[in-house]
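Ticket #4471: structure output looks truncated?

Reporter: J.K.
Steps to reproduce: submitted the chain below (142 residues) through the standard prediction queue, then opened the result file.
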Amino acid sequence: MCDPDAPRSFLVCYDGSAESLHALQHACDLSKPQDKLSIMHVSSTALPQEKQDELKAAAEKELESAGQSFGGGKEYYFEVNDHPGQWLSTQCRLLSIDYCIIGCRGLSGLKKTVLGSVSESVVHHAPCPVLIVRGTCNPATV
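Returned output as attached by the reporter:
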């Protein structure tokens, strides 16, 4: 049986969207102070340092408002990759992530067929449990 007090590691996929903010909020709700958080942003083009700083500041603001300190540490990753679902799944394996939390935009039909679904790819390939957070956060809490 697992030790309920043992530190856990969470990977949150974060791109600044309302859906990813909602995923980050869920990570805060599910985590304990000793847990570790890896916040990852994957895009097909390189982000300028200014944009990376903006995303990091927005995530930090959300973590601060949630009152979560992550004593196990916080790490930010910004990756350029044309296959984000595969890259995120690989990171889950390499970093021994316990739980992956990802938002979902709810694409359907032709858009999903053409664009694919990052969350669907992660669910199928990640070696850990994956929580897909649907919808967006309550604007009153942001």
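Triage note (M.O.): checked the attachment and the full token line is present. Residues 49-66 form the longest helix (18 residues).
Status: closed, working as intended.
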